[in-house]
Amino acid sequence: MSVYVFGHKVPDSDSIVGAIAIAYLKNQVEKEEYIPARQGDISAETEFILNKFGGELPILKTSVAGERVYLVDDSDSLLFQDDIREATILGITDHHKLGDLTTNAPLEMWVRPIGCSNTVVYEMYQSYGVEIPKNIAGMMMMAILSDTVIFKSPTCTKVDTKAVKELAKIAGIEDYKALGMEMFIVKSAVDDSSVRELNTRDYKAFDMNGSMVGVNQLEMIDISALDDRKEEIFKDMRDLKEEKGLHTFLVLLTDIMKEGSQLLCVSDDISKIEKAFGKAMKGDEVWLPGVLSRKKQVIPVVRPQF
């Protein structure tokens, strides 16, 4: 019986590449067939990575009841298929906090407080003594550069930077930072994107003591490209908040060059968000210098307010 490997809803590059890399690794060391999968459409950034290194798009898997699965890049049930609890979870590879998923039998877990799940995957290859194919090494390198914002994110560790350098050697990439910037240029493109696509490009929902909080993040080289679209972004944020039954919806416009984020907020109680960051909102938005990571700098300070 096959095992499906996949990451969270609204898949990012870390979850897509992680699924590909783990499936390949497992197929070298185990008898079962591991199949890389995804829960939704990939981003332009991930498409760029796959095209650059000849990666195949994982199959779409929106229901997993009765299936055997391996999860990458999260362990929170809200971020997986609605029937995820009806699947048998064989393993988890992640770099986030532990979520609420539980299992009836022992499972394999590789969880590290570092910048990217693919760095953990790199360590898995080392542990198993399996050689990383050139194209997979290139994709893993790019996923780490994406998640660590080319080493600028506070989540980035020496383990991540070392992994990128080693993976670059395997992939035959000399200037990995230049390629990373090329990737972020693709990621920053917004002209052809609908407002709904912008507001859900990297969306995750969190249950904070019974209150649902949605957080979307757009990482761009220059967030001023969205200045003329703020009004429609806020309107759609209000629509999304109602559609999804959220208490609060946050959008982080992260400027990787200025190394900070413009926080946009629609909420039933905006004072909770002001208290979290110790800043007063101006027109339902505020600049947060140095804030680049949703995982480390946003969720941990917002959650205690609920």
The low-confidence parts are none
Distance between the termini: 43 Å
The domain tally reads: 2
Radius of gyration: 19 Å
Q: Would you list the SSEs in sequence order as H and E?
A: EHEHEEEEHHHHHEEHEEHEHH
Name of the CATH superfamily of the largest domain? inorganic pyrophosphatase (n-terminal core)
CATH topology of the largest domain: inorganic pyrophosphatase (n-terminal core)
Number of helices: 11
Percentage beta strand = 15-25%
What CATH architecture of the largest domain do you see?
Alpha-Beta Complex
Strand order of the largest sheet: 3-2-1-4-5-6
Q: How many β-strand runs? A: 11
Global morphology: globular
Folded structure, characterized:
With 306 residues, the chain is α/β, with parallel strands linked by helices. 38% of the residues lie in helices and 21% in strands. The chain has 2 domains: 3-185, Alpha-Beta Complex (inorganic pyrophosphatase (n-terminal core)); 195-305, Roll (Diaminopimelate Epimerase, Chain A, domain 1). The longest helix has 17 residues, at 13-29. It is globular.
Nutshell version of this structure?
By secondary structure, this protein is an alpha/beta fold.
List the helices and strands and how they pair.
Layout: E1 3-6, H1 13-29, E2 34-38, H2 44-53, E3 59-60, E4 68-72, E5 88-94, E6 108-111, H3 117-128, H4 134-147, H5 158-171, H6 176-188, H7 195-200, E7 203-208, E8 211-220, H8 230-243, E9 248-255, E10 260-267, H9 270-277, E11 285-289, H10 294-297, H11 299-302
Helix pairs in contact: 1-3, 1-4, 2-4, 2-6, 3-4, 4-5, 4-6
